[in-house]
Design goal:
2 copies of one chain form a homodimer. With 412 residues, chain A is α/β, with parallel strands linked by helices. The first copy, chain A, contains 13 helices and 16 strands. Chain A folds into 3 domains: 113 residues, 3-Layer(aba) Sandwich (Rossmann fold), CATH 3.40.50.720; 163 residues, Dihydrodipicolinate Reductase, domain 2 (2-Layer Sandwich), CATH 3.30.360; 79 residues, Alpha-Beta Plaits (2-Layer Sandwich). Helices cover 37% and strands 27% of the residues of chain A.
Amino acid sequence: MTPPNPPGRFRVGLLGNGTVGSALAALLPEHADRIEVRTGLRPELTGILTRSSGDFDDLLERSDLIVELIGGIEPAREYVLRAMRAGRHVVTANKQLLSQHGEELWDTARELGVQLRFEGAVAGVVPVIRVLQESLAGATIDRVHGIVNGTTNFILTEMARTGATFSEALAEAQRLGFAEADPAEDVDGRDAAAKMAILARLAFDTPVRLDQVRYEGIEHIKPDDLEYARELGLGLKLIGTAERIGGGLSVRVHPAFLYPGHPLASVSGPFNAVTVESEAITEITMSGPGAGGPQTASAVLGDVISAMIPPASTPETTQALKLVQDVVSAFYLHLEVADEPGVLAQVAQLLAEQGVSVKSVVQKGMRDQARLVMVVHPVLESRFSGAMKLIADLAVLRAPPRAIRVLEEEFG
Amino acid sequence: MTPPNPPGRFRVGLLGNGTVGSALAALLPEHADRIEVRTGLRPELTGILTRSSGDFDDLLERSDLIVELIGGIEPAREYVLRAMRAGRHVVTANKQLLSQHGEELWDTARELGVQLRFEGAVAGVVPVIRVLQESLAGATIDRVHGIVNGTTNFILTEMARTGATFSEALAEAQRLGFAEADPAEDVDGRDAAAKMAILARLAFDTPVRLDQVRYEGIEHIKPDDLEYARELGLGLKLIGTAERIGGGLSVRVHPAFLYPGHPLASVSGPFNAVTVESEAITEITMSGPGAGGPQTASAVLGDVISAMIPPASTPETTQALKLVQDVVSAFYLHLEVADEPGVLAQVAQLLAEQGVSVKSVVQKGMRDQARLVMVVHPVLESRFSGAMKLIADLAVLRAPPRAIRVLEEEFG
């Protein structure tokens, strides 16, 4: 259906130049080489239409695929429909549009045999749309639980962490860029409701519109609630739910307490996460940053690449990185030593000589010997092994030293 | 490339009839109706080849796609190559084969334009292969961390929970079906190393063979290590890592302690999880059951369906479930009441009359009033609302009652 494009090129027309649009415009040329190797086609941006500049018909004429990041209902809806009717694939991140006019758009895409992809519309780069549509196409889904609004999750995390009121935590979220100047749709649950309408549609093959989703926000949550809940062992999240109930379907968004073992309980700050439950698969949980220009643009770019190629083939190896064997690790070190003065000093001295720096120590006496348990800061493994060999030779050692790596959290 | 199949049918030939194979043979007819609606083609099993029965050429002739679940290197490798050379798509869950002969197979698939899909080879139903190949095709990946062996994760979870030795926890895992009779490849890290070789290949477009992955198992872990680590706030996992290091690539598997905030720290029991890190996207974490017949079969079926259809279109709504509004929830209930005798009794009486059952109560006096915080067992929301209205009218109430839902963990 796509009109013949210039040989070797794949022309992307962009609608919208906000946070996500400008991030995509930067990402596309940066990855053009790799995408060309992968797909055989070189993606190029043919133009950017904004609300104030550009001509849609002209952009459409010169594009193989339209990325809609203009937001809202109109003219986004009209542009998406016109692009598909002209045989173009469309990638969008517009949750309002899909949760209110999804069936019209999906019907059109199916009838015309064009692709309409929308990973960026729900939970940013968390690949929940693709997983529901493709990985789980063969599973009967019972329930989807999601933390699909990063603003509210940040606010609730702050309230729990610092005892702040809702207003104080919202102000902090705004200061850090995790809440918009007008946060109404985020904090009242409507944004999450739109996303759950889309997830419910995909998980249960049932048409679900935003106005059919019951939602409640977090404005009324008091610091007290979080304090008492902690005593009961509970954490608070804004949870979207879509689940089968007695032959029907319930889709709703509301704050809910979670027990510590719940797969969503540990999702904190601006992160999003979605758990999909099915009798056959038990459950899958996916989490990651739920918003942000570069993150959502990365999801959009994944959709663009998918539209460029026939179903995944594993590309040729292009990088052929050299395989490295000696790496940097932090270590836990367990020593059984004689309980006599100066042992810790001897061990510490040997470590220091090899450039191994101690982060924490626990020492416990046991009759005539002691256990010395340390965590050391990250160091090249060969240096740590060198120190271990020297320590093993110490006269005060009562058993071979034991070491286990420690993974430090670098992101997030 | 696929030979003309009978109109409306998609013929699947199955190699192997073990745990996953027999689960797939059950799953396919069960989902045939839904798959036909989704793809326009009705999948049917044309036959099952085992090591002792069936003729491969005959099966190949009558199949549009071959599912290889026979395991090991030969004859699996030969079958997969012959199927692709005959123009058939192939779905496999064979990590040994891919980690030792992957390039040969991927090259063949690419050259012949057939699909070779293998979601089931790594982390069962956790969709890490598809996410790396498709969702993240536009991201530069810096690191992949994975808990990709459920047997070892179960053993380490048991050792931490009960203080058991490695041998005791292994015996328990075998008793519960989470470890095989010969657990050598699981506990020595080789199984995880094969999976990390595959993930590293996909994440970094670099050829990685199993024999290039450095691995260490968990046989030498002592209960002591876990006990001291707990004092230091650490949990122990068998971690596979593939990461860029100074222009090279390190791929390795070893036990490692994790700080509590690490996205993999809360993955317990036989679950698998993979975290993908990239500067642009921060990180995505995916978790779920890492093995099991029905779970892995579900991943295989997702691959089969993907091979049946052109890139995802959103199928027509087929179920049109009725949207349900009144659902069952557990609740947290926060009441500010007069601090006088009989208040708890009054509240408890009203709840009981509405069929609301109390799970836990915290009561605190504050000068002349008290706070009563309860969690109630799951109940139809309309009944709970009824009880709330009656409670709000009690003379002893000093502020409107506050209620927040509590999510209980049902799976896992």
